């Protein structure tokens, strides 16, 4: 069952960042969005690309993103049922964010010994 999201009316200067992160939080959402940037995918195609995700977790993440208006779920009346997932206009608008996360990850994903040290600034 998708999580219920609560919106608080008090908005700090960083609340737009917080709102964006709330939409793409979750272990698999960013990766799912990344793969859907390539085009429409069926459930099992997504699952094959995310080898360690469980069916239940993938279903929950897809439902949450559908509820948030990031993806569209299309069900075809066939036997067996055919279900496809694609990005909505709102989901597609996250493309530069997802690509920026990938670029940053390509550069910084490997944990270096100095990575955990705080950055010293000149006073």
From TrEMBL:
GO terms for molecular function: DNA binding. The keyword ATP-binding does not apply. It comes from the Bacteria. PROSITE patterns: HTH_HXLR (PS51118). InterPro entries: HTH_HxlR (IPR002577), WH-like_DNA-bd_sf (IPR036388), WH_DNA-bd_sf (IPR036390). Residues 15-113 form the HTH hxlR-type domain. Signal peptide: none annotated. It holds the Pfam family HxlR. Keywords: DNA-binding, Transcription, Transcription regulation. The keyword Transcription applies. Gene3D superfamilies: Winged helix-like DNA-binding domain superfamily/Winged helix DNA-binding domain. This is Transcriptional regulator, HxlR family. It comes from Methylobacterium pseudosasicola.
